[in-house]
Amino acid sequence: MYRIGQEEKDAVARVIDTRDLFKINNGMHETEQCEALMREIFGVKRSLLMTSGLSALTSALIGMGIGPGDEVIVPAYTYIATAMAVVQAGAIPVIAEIDETLTLDPDAAEKKITERTKCIIPVHIQGFPCDMDHICAVAKKHGLFVLEDACQADGGSYKGKRLGTHGNAGALSFNQFKIITAGEGGALITDDDKIYERALIYHDASAIAFFGDQLKDVTEPQFCGTEWRTNEVAAAILHQQFLKLDGILSDLRKNKKLLAERLAPKYKFNPSNDIEGDCGTTLPVLFDTEEEARAFAEKASQAKVGNYLPIDTGKHIYNHWTAILEKRGALHPLMDPFKHPANAPYVPDYPNETYPKMLDLLARTTYLLTDPDWTEERIEEIAKAL
Question: Residues 23, 118, 178, 256: which is the catalytic one?
């Protein structure tokens, strides 16, 4: 969370005063307003608020028709939710290596494609844009969907176009640790009517036909799904957060750039696929050894600068995805995609797969966490300390 205050308090108070907190209402219509604002910001036809980034990823995959017998390529460096969404859809996550930008290596992803592959999920980890031109070219060549996991990159861009809008659909997240937040929340964005309609039905299957006219003009048949709808309180907070988004990003980018310029004579950084579109939340400093990275992290801590080595982030790294590695996709074995007859012959041998490039890069990198409210004096102070 970066900036939250009176505007969000007032918005929530207005909703509470209407005593109409449900998504479909005769009060403030905050959910509708927030989704409309998202469509404007991201330049998409369709937007759908829901409860989390995982719910948005899963709903998108369901909307793509992905299920048993299918494979979806995910990077080895991403939060476990990316792989779990694939499993929730009934498909099998196939893990691919990253490159020096710490995002999915398009060539490594292409090498993992089989006749069962249906989708690639590039992840804009830490707000670092993936190489979307290359990834989309690979997907087009092989007839695959592209689902952008922009859950750590709300509002970022690649070559002037918002992250989440280059592929067939994008997923955003608004939990406590994201660029904008309502404590929890997520969203699906897309220009594809079929993906949107199926996601709409799936994310709120028990109520979508009961409240309001949500199925107006929807041609996809109803089917059983889950219940991940948002509410007016969360939407009211997010509405105000979206109004602040570009200001937050602008200041993050400015401060990251200033700090990088001051440190550049003595340090090197991981390359970027688009430094201008990068969200600016994180300055990745690359070292020759892990020992050097840890020494630098200690120095940053002494200077009271948020930092960590990405190798230490647990479930953001494939070898900590316990449920995936142990192939437990559901509690009941008959509901487990790893045991489904359409998947079972092709399930990867996850524990014996290795991604040495990723492990090496993450161990030799220290993340410096930027702050949009740093002053130039504070940046100078940090630079001198480092």
Answer: 178
